[in-house]
Amino acid sequence: MKRFPWEVIPVLAIGIGLGLLYAWMIAPVRYINTTPITLRADFKDQYRMLIAASYASTHDLARAKIRLELLGDADPVQVLSAQAQRLLASGQPFDIVQQVAMLADDMQSGVAHIPPTATTESIASVEPPTSTPAASLSGTVAPPQTAPIASPTIEIVSTIIPLTITPRPTYTPTPTAGAPAILLSNDKICNPNLTDGLMQISVIDAHHHQMPGIEIIITWDGGEDHFFTGFKPEIANGYADYIMQANVTYTVRIAESGTPVPNLVAPACTDSSGQKYTGGFHLTFQQP
Amino acid sequence: MPRWLYSVIAIVIGIGLGLFYGWVVSPVQFVDTTPASMRADYRADYVLMIAEAYHADQNTDLAIRRLAVFGSNSPADIAAQALQTGQTIGYSAEDISLLQELTRALQAYQPPPTPIEGTQKDSAPTGGAP
After folding, report:
1. CB 3.0 to 4.6 Å from A282: which of A118, A180, A200, B32, for a disulfide?
2. ipTM surpassing 0.85
3. Exposed e or buried b for every residue in A3-15, given b needs 16+ CB within 10 A?
């Protein structure tokens, strides 16, 4: 029986060492021609914010959808809503939060709520590039193709906007300074499945868009608290809630401008078995 | 069999195992990349988004900050490159116009002068001794 040729082991090790030297020092991997789906998480956040900023300018929902698809999010609406909440919590400017939240809202409804400036509009859609980078032996990706294939192609689609929509020259999603928020509804809620004393507040704008980031002030005898809409995107971007104590009279108002809603006392409710519990309210404010 | 042949066979087997591992077992996955590494058409679309936002807010500083993700090239060069890509791959006239607007604004942009330390005259202290 022949002995094992142990002398090949150092040869193999030298070969591996040379390979690593080449791969790590001489020609390290450079990522080129990547796609948005591979971006780092913070760059994806920036990408979404930019899509939202662009959408706020163009109101082109089809294009925004296609761009969001490039990021590969399983549920773009949820991701956008969550990002809006993070921006809100980190104290980002309201208009940035509003742009992201507005895109989330419109994505969810499937309708661009911003009226166009004419009775017809051109909707340009970007088709996502279909080719994927081909990995070469060294781990790099293939050089850019010079031919205009697999590139964003622009398709003009004329869409007739119903005449019932009144064209508006501009749209300002921020609350109108000085215009008081009005109370649209104040409903007493007796639902044993909800938390006792739950005050639910929804804030919408004139177009019935949910409005995140709206500060709400609640006062009671000897106390005051502030909270914001938008921290429960799973319910709505313009939603906020507060737990009331029984037998305490509260006054609620929108911080920026709003007529106070006084004399809010958690109602006493009775369930089907005759058991008493503390109910709540659902207040809906509208910012003109 | 000559002994050198063992070495050659060992290297060939090693390369084969390496390729199998690299391509089948654990292929390269591109993660955590930056916008600068994106393919030219994606970069152009990114710049187009900046141009669309710029068209609405006319905020050159903000556009420059947004373009900073593409690295150390000048913002005007980045926009010009995107414009060139857009023309090559057939962007609509409207999109080309937006990119041109952004490029012109960036080329004409003059950063606000920053005071250079030591060039300002020392002002006399106010108050104090008569």
Report:
1. A200
2. no
3. eeeeebeebeeeb
